[in-house]
Specification:
Length: 303
């Protein structure tokens, strides 16, 4: 497979859609990003990386980090996490509160905000420093120190964080948050603020294509746990558009409101695409189009 020429073809094909949609507006530090940026990278299971456009430009990873905190929480703490968070699509926006009361403070899945707060809470209990543990993991997997916290974004998240605070306090009222809510929120906001490029995110996610093996060949997750994370990405990774994403792309994927999406072809490669214009569900318009083109051109999907 000539990944480089596939990427160049995709960039040409999606050029008309780059700039469509709107960058996330509820976090002021993200609203000012140029919506005309587009980058895409592929890392194969051997660590070769290919890219096009702004593939080396760091951007705000946001909810893409939810995949990595889930992997770390499972790696450190095993399966009892699943007693505190479900594995079903929510069918609601990523920051919705509405299901939590009906479902007694147990979030539907680890990739909506409520679920991610539970996962970060677990990682905080297990490690004492969830956001630092995450950053160090990302740096090790992509083999450089470029992934970093963005203070402006973290402060901006915190200033606009009433809804996440509400989710965390509400779950605490059901006994589903173990740490003090302000400490948990700090770790969650720092986690969302991490900046990385498409190249580094594709490299860092390779354990999902390598059935749980890290970049240094040590085991992070069992083969079965890697399969489980990929499955939850497919069904829940793009919020209330997960059905449409599976229909169009046919790969496990996780998006973030910074405009990035990570996708996995198990056994073959990982992809990361970035373009800041978002659709109504919070997924990158050009990013979804690019992944759609990738699976159409290559036939590489899980189906
Ligand atoms: O919690 C938030 O609002 C953001 N920091 C992350 C949002 C995002 O990317 C989509 N969330 N699941």
């Amino acid at each position: 497979m000539n990944y480089q020429s596939v990427l160049e073809r995709i960039a040409e094909d999606v050029a008309p859609q780059v700039g469509h949609g709107t960058p996330a507006e509820y976090i002021p530090a993200l609203a000012s990003v140029d919506p005309h940026r587009f980058g895409m990278a592929i890392a194969d299971v051997d660590g070769n990386v290919y890219g096009v456009g702004d593939w080396r430009q760091p951007f705000s990873t946001q909810s893409i980090t939810k995949v990595f905190t889930l992997a770390l929480a499972l790696a450190h703490g095993g399966d009892d996490l699943w007693e505190r968070v479900g594995r079903e699509p929510s069918g609601n926006p990523f920051n919705s509160l509405v299901q939590l009361e009906y479902e007694s403070g147990i979030p539907r899945n680890p990739f909506i905000n409520a679920g991610a707060l539970v996962v970060t809470d677990r990682l905080l209990t297990l490690t004492g420093d969830a956001s630092r543990e995450l950053l160090e993991f990302l740096r090790q997997e992509c083999g450089n120190d470029r992934p970093s916290f963005d203070t402006e974004v973290a402060e901006s998240e915190s200033a606009a964080g009433s809804r996440n605070a509400a989710l965390a306090h509400f779950m605490a009222s059901y006994g589903n948050i173990a740490n003090p809510v302000p400490t948990l929120l700090d770790h969650y906001f720092w986690q969302c603020s991490i900046e990385m490029s498409c190249a580094d995110l594709a490299l860092a996610a390779r354990f999902l294509a390598r059935h749980g093996l890290r970049a240094d060949d040590s085991r992070l997750l069992s083969r079965s746990e890697a399969k489980q994370i990929n499955a939850v990405m497919l069904t829940c990774g793009t919020y209330d558009a997960a059905g449409e994403f599976a229909y169009r792309v046919g790969l496990p994927g996780k998006s973030g409101v910074g405009g990035g999406i990570v996708a996995v072809v198990p056994g073959r490669c990982t992809l990361c695409v970035w373009s800041p214009g978002l659709d109504e569900q919070g997924n990158s318009v050009a990013g979804v189009a690019a992944l759609d083109r990738f699976t159409t051109l290559t036939g590489l999907s899980v189906f």
